[in-house]
Amino acid sequence: MFFLLTWDVEMAVTPDDFLALSKAIDGKSNCSEIELRNAYRCAYYAAHHAAKQALPRLGLALAKASNGGSHADVEVSLAAAGTYQSKRLVAQLQRLKRVRVDCDYHLDKNINANVLAVRMAEAQNAFVHLMSLGVPNAAALAE
Amino acid sequence: MAGPTPELKSNELGKRVKMIASSYADTGILNEIAWQGAFRDSLALEGTPSEPGALIARGVLLGLKQDNEGVDLSFDKYATRYGIDWGWHACRASLALFLGRPEFVVDLIEFGVPEGDIDACLGAYSYASQAGFMISASEYIAKLRVMKSEVFNTPRAEFMDEVVIASEYLRTHGINERDLADRIAAGWKVASRESNVTVLGNVDLSANEEGISFNFCLRADVDRCLAIQQLMDEALINNFDDPMFEHLSVGVFPADMGR
User: Fold this and answer.
1) 3-class secondary-structure state, position B251
2) Is residue A29 packed enough to be buried (19+ CB in 10 Å), middle (13-18) or exposed (0-12)?
3) Considering the domain boundaries, does residue B161 fall inside one?
4) Which pLDDT tens digit goes with each residue over B216-238?
5) How far is A95 from chain B (nearest CA, A)?
6) What's the predicted TM-score (pTM) here?
7) Which of B83, B112, B132 is the last residue of a domain?
8) Is residue B164 within 8 angstroms of chain A, CB to CB?
9) Which residue has the higher pLDDT, A35 or B198?
10) Which of A14, B155, B181, B255 is deepest in the core (most CB within 10 A)?
11) Residues B243 and B183: beta-carbon distance below 8 Å
12) By the CB < 8 Å criterion, does B187 face chain A?
């Protein structure tokens, strides 16, 4: 009974877990291609889920995008804030998503390691920013 | 008996200018001594049989200094005296990205590539793809295939594959290639005006079902790249009613990770 109750209140994983895994992989020396791709995808998902979780804190509903899947849903929902900052965050998420799609689906593509590195850092920054949104005394989306 | 026809001095000057420009694109460092020498020679050759080539060379040299007015004066002088030809367009278009003037590529595309000229077609492809004219660039690729260009056996073929995917994406979504080029030019201007940062000539292009990523290479660390990335995003938001972020990412990446 206690076990079930615990399952009800605890999240299985959090966006932080994605980021921690990303850093753990990327922190290794001489990462292989598959490790770098995995590290990046985890960093991307950290930012994506952070954005999704930020929506209710910002009073925004999860809307359905006319084109695209669940990732686009989060993007259009965040864009609905209509602020300068939300536009930039959505631009970041879309930029990060493009690289994630290359990592996950385009196995034959040679991904530029330096592009991957800067996008990884960008995903980490976006994650921190998104996690702070809507939190009292933290950055506001209305800037 | 007459000996071989002496080479025009402007040909030698053109080769030097090409080397200066190529080195600048690769390293981000302009060889000032070589530049001054070439510039002086371009002035000295006015009024000689080498004048046409000297005017073009001067236009390119001034382009390397981002002297837009000087570029226009040199190319206009050539056009007035000798008319507009393929060489004029090609050299002007080679400066398009560097000067943030995509209209130079538009002019070249409208002028047309000399029929059957592989080198001209390859040049047109390079200038078009670097400036973001992906549909035109993919059409040049198709012509190069018909002409059986050797370029497909080189590492450049990989970039060409991305150009073709980008062009298909633009066609599928009904996006005008000029819209893409304008946003790339706006991003370039932001990166190139930043102090203590060198924008190198190589670009990274990736296209997939989620859109097009076009990245400039900077001699800067990751943190500086991120700061410039933010400025580029802001410039696109401020300068365009629709920055087209859902289709296009204009970004930067470091040349060297230092590890």
Assistant:
1) strand
2) exposed
3) no
4) 999 999 999 999 999 999 999 99
5) 6
6) 0.89
7) B83
8) no
9) A35
10) B181
11) yes
12) no
Bridge pairing between strands B248-254 and B198-208: unpaired
For domain A18-132, which architecture applies? Up-down Bundle (1.20)
In DSSP terms, which residues pair with B250 in a beta bridge? B214
Question: Among A87, A97, A113, whose Cβ lies nearest the Cβ of B237?
Answer: A87
What pLDDT was estimated at residue A1? 47
Residue-number span of the structural domain to which B205 is assigned: 177-254
In B189-208, the residues whose Cβ lies within 8 Å of chain A are: 204, 206, 208
Average pLDDT over chain B, rounded to an integer? 93
Choose among B210, B215, B229: nearest Cβ to A97: B210
Whether residue B207 contacts residue B177, with contact meaning beta carbons closer than 8 Å, is answered with: no
ipTM at complex level: 0.87
Given CB atoms, is B225 within the 8 Å cutoff of chain A? yes
> B253 and A90 in contact by Cβ < 8 A?
no
Q: What is the largest CA-CA distance in chain B?
A: 69
Q: Can you give the residue ranges of every domain in chain A?
A: 18-132
